[in-house]
User: Fold this.
Amino acid sequence: MKHLGYLQTVFVFCLLIAPFTFAQTSASGKVRFVLGEVTQQKKGVGNWNPLRVGAKVAPKDLIKTLVESEVGIALIDGSLLTIEENSLVILTESIKDSKLTKTTVNIQSGKLFFDVQKQKNPNSLEFKTGTATAAIRGTSGFIGQTNRGMMLSLESGKMLVTSVNGDSMEVNEGETLIQDGEKGFKKFKTRNSGSKQLASLLETQINQKDYSEEKLIQEMKSLDASTLPKMDSLEKNFPCTFVPLPEFVTDNFVTFRGQCPVDVALSINSSPIEIKKGGVFNQKFSWDETTFGTKKFSAKCEASHIQFACGKFKVLYGESTPNSLPGHTSEAPTGDFLFIKTASPAKICKQGSVTIEGSFATIDTTAQLNVFLGNKKSPNLLPISINGSFIYSFPISDIDQNWNERQIKVFLKTENRTFVDSLMLDIDKSCKEVNLKAPKIEIKSVDSVKCEAAMSITEITGDVVLFSRMLDGIPESEQAFTQDKPYEKFALKKGIHRYTLTAEDLAGNRSSVTKDMGCYPPTAFYIQMDGNAKEIVHVPSGADRLTGIPRNVRFRIKNIPENDPQYLSKLVLKRNGQTMITFRGSQIDRLDYEFPIELVREETTQYEFIVTSKNGSTRKATKTYEVRNVQ
Assistant:
């Protein structure tokens, strides 16, 4: 089966972007994603037709996946079933008094992964194969039918499995069960429980003709031994970061936001997540508006073909009703109440503030009515409120340091009781009225020998910042950050180049810095001279009228990267220890030099050529001339 990184390139999450709901009794589920060739036969009769994202799966529909195909089916409560390749599955429902009571997933062949929300009484969900039934109320893992019977592995929760013969066994979190014909059920502890790696191993081993339990146990131990160190390492080095979810929601959806490193695939409740530019993701999960209760989500990251847990989340979905907390006595004054009228969640964007309105009543003249946003508190609103209604506003922005708050609470404290109600906040950090501060970017250091520089990006907290680097005006890289980076290194390209570093936040606030930086790694360059290191020049004797003997000395600098003279910082020509010529920086415009010189009769003259590179390395070559008279 192809890994999640591949999934991201072959389907579009239409259903995750827009929330979906479906009638409680009209469909077993709705298609969230499709990979490859998946077909559906309506109510088990007629033709097989392609199954598309957004399609409904009604009771008694058959779903078939072919090689390298899979499909995600979302149930009304937010549970997700992922039917793997080469599988045939039927979903059925039992309806009583117009209410759903039982959903049955009948696995004719193949296997599926599941992330099931806790079922609310009297609802239940069960899996059936040809040899056993597994009943659950809320758990995650995989289940399938092999040549020998059922296989089942749980990442979380527990299940009761019952065979067609009436034998039963409870399977708990971290346990794996296999059914082996007349031998019945066996279960094992394994650290890979519920994982794709284990599912593939079990299916391969159990369906072999020479299957043995001893060999299977050994293979599972080997899998643990080989994958767990890698999983631990990947978990430390490749974590995805998530914006926290609210503890309580009154809308039938939550939105997962955050950022993952490059080459890391992410799934939530077995549903692959679309990773956008810079590793940023923003995906919505929804459920039927009537299915109140706790919703649980588990995140899985995948890198190097190994999947590992990288986050667990929980939100409480409920109706928007006032809550009361008991005070000193259980008796409250007649008619006392507190209620927030503002719709939840309050969406914060262009206004750059939140205004909360509500109603209250009390006969206690000493009562206190206060609104709290984080560590900010309103004055007592009771004296200034009119006709039992109150209104109060807080500015919200990164400058006010409260744009990470998730809710506002209102307290009405009377002599005998305290009433409290809350309002959830949906703060859009892409709005300029909320996101006021631009991230700050600086170049901290440059090391031209190691060919690396370091920068800092600060004032990110609570934001998502897209960092981009341009090299000589050409885009080179992009990366997203969700927290401050006081010292982040990056590599420099050989030679000297102009780098422009830019940091831009969700609201488009931007800061940038431009600097010319060089990379001059150590290199084994050398100086090549024409002729021998020592040359003897013969001149006729008696030619005393000659005052000098003209010659040319030629030097070549070899093995310079890209034959680029900008790697050199200084060039010196000396005669008998005395400096004759010095070139620096841009004066060094070539690697081949020829200088005219003048030799003196009956003298030995030494010329020295010294070259220094920008990384500090120095090379030297000498040429000696000896002038002799000949008869």
Q: What stands out?
A: Residues 430 and 508 are 8 Å apart (CA to CA).
